[in-house]
Predict the 3D structure of the following.
Amino acid sequence: MIKLVVLGAPGAGKGTQAARLAEHFGIPTISTGALFRTHMAAGTELGELAASYINHGNLVPDEVTTGMLAERLSEPDVAAGFILDGYPRNLEQAAVLDETLGDEGLTAVVDFEIRGTEVVNRLLARAAIEGRSDDTEEIIRHRLMVYREKTAPLVDYYRERGLLVPVDAVGEVDEVTARTIAALSDAG
């Protein structure tokens, strides 16, 4: 059973690589963003709670996110494993995830490494292609700062537990995928 978490700064390619790894290993990707959208569309209690935060531009509290994730991890399609994209985002969520998974725990945590200047360039290019005027350089730099403050400490947390698998995220998508699969094989 393969249970992975993907980490990396905004624009590092986590979503793209998570989808490719899911296809390679035949396991689902669980994205917190997709969970929020699914619950909100279905009008569940958790979805309505999440919407009350999202619609006001606030972060969804850990308890709500964790509730959705715990429910999703009980679905039959995760029996062979899963890839988490967007969770955990902080040390508190990592501790809850450890508790939720129990003795089996995670197989590995892939950290897609990329320099700040590369991230800014990627996200500005993506914003131009997708016509996202809200992704200005200032907003992108702010997102990177938030990532460094809240999410980057997870790298040390998982390194100390021997789970971290660093992968250079610069290059063509196929190259990064091949690098990731090789790194996971070496770590496994």
